[in-house]
Design goal:
Elements lengths: L9 H13 L7 E4 L4 H7 L27 E7 L1 E4 L25 E3 L5 H24 L3 E3 L2 H9 L7 E5 L10 E3 L8 E8 L6 H11 L2 H7 L28 H7 L1 H15 L13
Parallel strand pairs: 4-5
Antiparallel strand pairs: 1-8, 2-8, 3-6, 3-7
Length: 288
């Protein structure tokens, strides 16, 4: 079987799918996206196939339309506190306040929150806990702003770069030489279920059904880290607690945030007024 995968930002994928739907020319079988607010809209338009893959019943009810099986979370993503110990010797980052330490001035790299709604949600959670004073102090640290969440990691792992820490990226859970990561316990951090659907007019619906069943298989779920299925435990060698046992995150909260577009846009432009509009290459291209 040949599997064609197109990788891009969810905020671009959804517009392209809208164009295909408007032209009655759907050539995509499956979408797996961060833009969680799109799925109820597409379902209301009659664009999605109602299909419950293997493991659907065990997915958290907040991640799916249980009545129709038109869409459902398939794996978790999160933002980590990520840093380079070689660049920051004798420093451990555990909380967002650690980014205000004087040793981190001119060494922080962050993704523009006005360019990525999941990063924007991180700022929403931080500001709820720490207030505008925290943002003022962060900006005084002179962070570098980049478009891609991957770019921040690349810069931190590049030895001749000064960038040494971020809280707007996810590297997975496997150890990476020259780096460390943690998750805060005093402030809520972002986790969310990347969500999937099959198009009703998909050219290859059976292949899409097979893909979704594979992604929800216990083997794939454990490989990804935190399963979205409550009947699949984390892997024996997994270094983190199960999500249900971590009080400092709520994966269902991101979907509610994304659904409130007024709230999203108000925060986006509040932060853009403070840090400027997003500058740089495509978020998929590391911009040095």
């Amino acid at each position: 079987m040949t599997l064609n995968i197109t990788v891009d930002l969810s905020k671009y994928h959804d517009g392209r799918l809208d164009e295909q739907l408007a032209n009655s020319n759907v050539h995509v079988d499956s979408v797996i996206l961060q833009t969680l607010h799109d799925f109820p809209r597409w379902e209301n338009q009659g664009a999605l196939l109602n299909y419950a893959p293997l493991g659907f019943d065990a997915i958290d009810g907040a991640y799916k339309n249980a009545a129709t099986a038109a869409y459902y979370g398939v794996y978790h993503l999160a933002w980590q506190l990520f840093w380079s110990p070689p660049k920051l010797p004798n420093i451990t980052i555990r909380e967002f306040d650690d980014f205000l330490r004087p040793e981190l001035k001119n060494k922080i790299v962050l993704t523009y929150p006005n360019d990525d709604d999941a990063v924007l949600f991180a700022f929403d959670l931080i500001l709820q806990r720490h207030g505008i004073e925290w943002l003022d102090a962060l900006l005084a640290q002179n962070p570098r702003w980049v478009r891609g969440t991957g770019t921040a990691v690349t810069l931190i792992l590049t030895p001749n770069r000064t960038e040494a820490a971020t809280f707007t990226s996810f590297t997975g859970f496997a150890p990476i030489p020259g780096s460390n990561y943690s998750f805060p316990t005093q402030t809520q951090f972002v986790t969310w279920p990347q969500t999937a659907a099959i198009l009703k007019d998909a050219p290859h619906p059976e292949g899409a059904k097979l893909l979704h069943s594979f992604v929800l298989s216990p083997e794939f779920q454990q490989m990804r880290g935190w399963p979205v299925r409550h009947d699949v435990p984390v892997a024996d060698n997994f270094s983190q607690l199960p999500l249900k046992d971590i009080p400092s995150t709520n994966p269902a909260a991101f979907g509610r945030f994304m659904a409130d577009r007024g709230r999203v846009e108000r925060l986006r432009f509040f932060l853009e007024d403070r840090i400027g509009s997003a500058q740089g290459l495509s978020p998929l291209v590391d911009d040095f």
